[in-house]
Amino acid sequence: MNSHLDTKLGLVLSGGGAKGAYQAGLLRYMAEQNIQPAMVSGTSIGALNAAVISAQKDISKASDVINTIWQELSKKNPIEVKKAPLFLSSVAILLSFSTILSRTIVGVAIDKAIDKTGLVREQPLNNILGDNAPVKLLKAGLPLYVSLYESEGSGTDLVKYFSTTLLNSLSKDTKDSEFKHIQSLSSDIMHEAIMASAALPYFFKAHEIEGKKYRDGGMGGSINEQGNTPAQPLAEAGCTHLIISMLDDGSMFDRHNPIYNDVAIIEVRPQEFISTSKLDMFAFTPEKIPLWMVQGYKDAKRCIGNSLNALSVIKENENTKSKVVSVLQDLHNDDFHIGD
């Protein structure tokens, strides 16, 4: 059991495309209440938001930056479709008919081509990382974990995921996602890993990380959203408390997993429906994004408000530890010695 001075708060940001604007509202509430996480994790759009938080470190600075980013995204959609050859543009239609088609010579060739290029330009998302979560700041930032799904090819990945989620198959789950600690990676692949976490099949190319090709971490362990809700790495890293942001209506995240036996969990879930269509994940629009930002703030206030006393204890303990470290450092700098 952790002692009081060992309390540590982690923030978990799930994936959901444009609905990631909801997390901007959550962060605004956390900043107002000065609720500072010690580490963060994210999947897909949540990985991008988490990267900015990690790099900015201070919750108030991170909230300001992320709210500005999402206000800009509401004005300019980051989804830019490439002027791809016809065979690339039609790949989703071809492979959606049957897994048999995806195994043909043509299907395999198209799959490999998509893995190398993707149908959507990555540069807008790369720019967000470069401007707001540069590698230099990430290396010195809050510990960051992202969820990654080892790819078997766009067609195979998507068919397995849809057969579980859209067809509500409870008998066969997708394999689990993996979690990468960004600060443990070499500098040249830190952004690659974050982009891999957001690499939805067909739309974005697969990314190679340490010899394996990865895609959107939200596809792993889809029945209980193991990959889309990356709470596991934060629990394993010693977090005693977790705030988890859900971007799905009725998320099936399993908080009763033994991994979380000694972890206090606050789930921030949409009180009202967050989605009206599966296409909402692409709705980077001035009609949707501001509404999601407000919704995230209101739900954070509702879900976290009753736990503020417990979270204030964490803040007090963090302040105490900082003071102890400061005093010890002062003594060290003064060359202080206790008698022989």
Overview of the molecule:
With 340 residues, the protein is of the alpha/beta class. Helices cover 44% and strands 11% of the residues. The protein has 14 helices and eight strands. The protein has helices at residues 21-32, 45-56, 59-73, 86-89, 91-97, 99-102, 105-117, 123-132, 135-139, 154-165, 190-197, 232-236, 289-305, 308-333; strands at 9-13, 39-42, 144-150, 178-181, 207-209, 212-216, 241-245, 264-268. Strands 1, 2, 3, 4, 5, 6, 7 and 8 form an eight-stranded mixed β-sheet that branches. A hairpin with a 2-residue loop joins strand 5 (207-209) and strand 6. Helix 2 (45-56) crosses helix 3 and helix 2 (45-56) runs parallel beside helix 8 (123-132). The longest helix is centred in the last third of the chain and has 26 residues, at 308-333. The radius of gyration is 21 Å and the shape is globular. The two termini are 36 Å apart.
In a few lines, what is going on in this structure?
The chain has 340 residues and is α/β, with parallel strands linked by helices.
Distance between the termini: 36 Å
* DSSP helical segment count: 14
The major beta sheet can be summarized as: 8 strands, mixed
Shape: globular
Q: Based on DSSP secondary structure assignment, what is the total number of beta strands?
A: 8
Q: What proportion of the residues is helical, as a percent range? A: 40-55%
Rg measurement, Å: 21 Å
Structural class: alpha/beta
Poorly predicted tracts of residues: 96-102, 336-340
Mean pLDDT: 84
Q: Tell me the series of helices and strands, N- to C-terminal.
A: EHEHHHHHHHHEHEHEEHEEHH
Strand percentage, roughly?
5-15%
